[in-house]
Amino acid sequence: RGSSFTYFSPHHQMAAARGGHPGGPMLPHFPPLQLQQQHQQQPVPPAPQPAVPSPQPFSRNPFAQGVNDVVLVHAPGSPVVSVMRAPQPPPPPPSTSSREVAPLIVLDASNIAMRHGGVTQKKFSVRGLQIVIEHFQGQGHRVVAFLPEYLSKFKEVGEAKRLVAMGMGSASKVPDDVKLLQQLIEKGSVVVTPPQDYDDSYCIGYAQRHDGCIVTNDMYRDWVEKVSPDNRLKAKQWTKTHLISYTWVQDEFVPNPDFQWPPPWTGGEIK
């Protein structure tokens, strides 16, 4: 009868797990509190993010021009497409012949009116002068026509007409419509010059002072000869670049198609 041991059957072990009473409910098993807290405090590593490649140019809008030029940009593998303004080239350097506004147009009124009146008829056509005024005004030009004052007076024109009928006068002094001419003067499109003065000098001087061009078929050689010898070459060059020749096709005014606007004139009046 020496030592003895107590044998616990599986039935007793299960009873102990149920609170010591066989057949009782089994108690839930909880992990140690300290381990559970440590498990909760461990940070969750963030999910890895896929690398996004840098945007690459996709295509250029073939219909865009100038400042509205755009580029469609997308990242490979991404459905997102963004619109970006394409880099614009630097503006070209300013041209010496560039003009911000339409140049002044000076009209040699007598030259234009007589040319429209016809080579054979020799008639001063006021309507032809009006056509040229409206032509350049429609293109945004300021237009000034110079004309001797006596051509706008009914009395002087009547006397000149009688002389022409007698074969003693000049048709260039007989406008065919004085009333229309006076209307153009009232509008400021035609400026009269003193009857004793040389009206071409007014055309040339005004055009040079205000950076304008003259519509005429006159080469103004007599004016060039009156210029001082030191400026004569300059005067010849100015007439080559600032005189707009023309012709008529019935009532259609046709300026010289080869004429090119000269650079802005800063030389003032040539004397």
TrEMBL record:
GO terms for cellular component: cytoplasmic ribonucleoprotein granule; nucleus. Residues 1-56 are annotated as: Disordered. GO terms for molecular function: mRNA binding; RNA endonuclease activity. Gene3D superfamilies: 3.40.50.11980. It holds the Pfam family RNase_Zc3h12a. InterPro entries: RNase_Zc3h12_NYN, ZC3H12/N4BP1_RNase_Reg. Residues 32-42 have a biased composition (Low complexity). Residues 104-259 form the RNase NYN domain. Residues 43-56 have a biased composition (Pro residues). PANTHER family: LD08718P-RELATED (PTHR12876:SF35), N4BP1-RELATED (PTHR12876). This is RNase NYN domain-containing protein. The lineage of its organism: Eukaryota, Sar, Alveolata, Colpodellida, Vitrellaceae.
